[in-house]
Amino acid sequence: MSKDVWVFIEHAQGTPKKISLEMLGCARRLATALAGSVVAFVPGSKVDQVAAAVGQRGADVVYTAEHALLETYTTDGYAAVLADAVRAESPAVVLAGSTAQGRDLAPRVAARLGAGIVTDCATLDWREAALVATRPMYTRKVIGTVRVTGVPCIAVVLPAMYPVAEADPSRRWEVRRRPVQIDGKAIRTSVREVKTVHRETIPLIEADVIISGGRGMKGPEHFVILDDLARALRAAVGSSRPPVDSGWVPHDYEIGQTGKTVSPQVYIACGISGAPQHLAGMSGSKLIVAINKDPNAPIFQIADLGVVGDLFEIIPKLTEAVNKVKAGSHG
Amino acid sequence: MNIIVCIKQVPDTEAPIRIKADGSGIDDTGLTLVMNYYDEHATEAGLRLREQFGGTVTLVSVGAERVKEALRTGLAMGADDALLVSDPALAGADHLGIARVLAAVIRTLPHDVVICGKLSTDDNAATVGAALAEYLGLPQATAIAHLEMDGAGAGAVVHREVEGGVEVLAVPFPAVLTVERSLNEPRYPSLPGIMKARRKEIKTVTAEHLGLAADVGMAAARATLVRLSPPPARKAGRIVEGDADQAVAAIISFLKDEAKVLS
Amino acid sequence: MDFQLADEHRMVQATVREFARQEILPRAAALDHTPVFPSEIIQKAAALGLMGMVIPEAYGGAGMDPVSYVVAQEELARASAGLQTIITVNNSLVCDPIFHFGTEDQKRRYLPRLSSGASLGCYCLTEPAYGSDAMSLRTDARREADQWILRGTKAFVTNAVEADICIVYARTGPQPGARGISAFIVEKGFPGISVGKVEKKLGIKCSSTAEIVLDGCRVPASNLLGEPGTGGKIALTTLDGGRLGIAAQAVGIARAALEEAAAYAAGRRQFGRTIGEFQAIQWMLADMATRIDAARLLMLRAAYLRQQGTRYTREASMAKLFASETAMWVTHKAVQIFGGYGYIQDYPVERYFRDAKITEIYEGTSEIQRVVIARHLLEGHA
Q1: A5-186 and A204-330 share one fold
Q2: pLDDT of C13-64, one tens digit each?
Q3: Torsion of CA A52, A55, A56, A58, to 10 degrees
Q4: Residue of A nearest to B124 (CA)
Q5: Which of B94, C214, C278, C350 could connect to B221 by a Cys-Cys bridge, CB 3.0–4.6 Å?
Q6: Least CB-CB distance to C268: which of A245, A296, A301?
């Protein structure tokens, strides 16, 4: 049984996903408390490139598990290699990012190994021989503290909770290739295709800045002013529920109880009243700016900066001002 | 087709939540308890499969006697049967424990597909579905947003939302599916359905019935909820009123100096 | 004595509340500003079983009890009083009399259609010259072979435009007052019936209100409802049930106004604090809540008595009287609490204020309700 903290690395086209790099930072804190190492687990293909990237960002050891059958994620394929590796090396903690893949894989592996698991973790600590996590519960109305014991402890961590370390090519790390034996018949599901959805702006869960439109946007044609501001601020665009219900924006824009939960550095709410269902999805934002013409809108109660005014006047002027600032600083 | 739907009873998400003084749990006095709304989508998915292939939809849940009300909602939507595993020995079980219990029940029933909500809105754990698939030894497809069966009912092609796109996945049956809200629009329980559901008998099963060892509850749990606390209070912000130019100036300096996202 | 709703009443309440929240609430304001008949919502309501709630399942109804009925109507009215008017009239004033007084053949011909949403019903009693004095109505019906020929004009008929099944009260006998009146089930397709002037109203705008003109309307003899000369009794018995629906409507409107006013008072800040911290507002809210609870309890009591099979005329009148006057008072206070915003159409309270007024008028004005109640009181002392 080791004191190591493993990080399951998700990657695409030879690049680790941002959330996996955030996990490395989290793993370092835990490994220090445990007096163990940070170990990255990289299954799939083009693993060497990924191994170097995670080595530069904090992994002490990188296990690679390379196999043609792992090129595409499948539950059976990845659960088998991860569970086998964890059984063999017996780390104290295994971390995965809260992504579609992480949420699909981690509970399956936990059940296979009989390991304690906690998901949606905001913070993680190692205390008194246990993994202690805090996590939002009851639509973000409550913070729960969960204690996980046994070997290993599995944690699925929320995005944007930990910083990504700077890449340091001078770091030392060891790459160990794990032999992989998979019986193709044991992989029962098959991926027909992965359709990429092209969007001009960044995915909501990865964005540092989110600009969100509500009922006050008054129609689909006005969301373009939010797109313009998003481009200027390198932000993602989302919405509350009413624009989705009215068909103004696609369903994946929705932030709130029935949509996504986000915790960006800055959340700019435009024409959003601030109903509890929406707050449940964004109240974890570090800083909130609200623009609304109704001075009584509940959103002003949680906004760090509240602006009472006409968003149709303010947003375009704001975009212009942002672009001026950027031009000035790059001039 | 033998369709099993696992449901959970949770507090109404619209209700305010009060934490007990000692932080050990939530204060459930006067709390409205409802079927987890992801499970409404799961039940709807089950009902539609029955419409397509015939067969039965059986609802299963774990918990106290009052969970029967949530099961009755599913019966009122049109499910055929409901079963509750209720046993004080299960108190304190963690998600894997619950999944083990569900697996034990489901093994006693014919099942071609087991459908769960992607997560439950009380703890957002999103753990039981995949763990249940592991214990049943079945393939899984989690957080599905679209479901198309093949003509014979031997398998399905599902869509899963992944970061930046949609994964199109073929799943053979029997399988465990967990569903996203975008999968379907759940039907309302009809009033006659409510009356029928009232009269339906819901079978209760104990841990002993299922042959589960004595330590399925707190003793076997590897993850324990230690404490609940209120979220950190946000410090009061400031309001800017004035013309658009003043507003823009205030936002720019906020983005520069406080948020540090503009330089 | 149990003041709690039974399990199935709570399930009905939760289901209808959720239905109202998803399907009606988002459209309620638009249905008032640009009134159209909400046929899509009505069809969905029918699919739920809301159009023939207390009609037995054998006739296509939902087989629910009167308490479930008023609970459901309150939830519907909380979302949109106009839409709930359409539903309650169909249930109480059309399905009910056909079920209680119709022949087996009439029940089989009409109740399934009315319960499923395939047909909509309306109730034609009032005339331009006979409102409160309804039993003096002049529309007449003359027997000719196996038909009745109806002549007259009915006023203020809810659902008149969209309904295809009309309960029409006409004078068939020489006796003055109630004893000379008979009830008929008249289909819009029968020759000689048409919709007259369509009224523009203060509130409940998405429900149509118009005249029904009977100009030698030919009604088959098999469509006489009940015995000749029992029309008055049918009308008055039917109104007992109708008054339950209107009491529920008034409670729903009042509750909507209270909920909005309380939320507003908790957020609106003046003089450095929320207006909900000022005693003047607190007392208004307290009085609003108390009166609404009282109205609801009167409503439930009357529904309960109907469920028991006992005569509930007095209690239904009390419920309708008190609930309607409560709705007026509460909505009036709600507008006041909102201040200037209460006068603006962007906020819902002005609509509640306008919608509430009709509950003091139709299905028997407050004055008539008082007459009914007093009569019952004094009967015992005669």
Answers
A1: yes
A2: 999 999 998 899 988 999 999 999 999 999 999 999 999 999 999 999 999 9
A3: 160
A4: A137
A5: B94
A6: A296
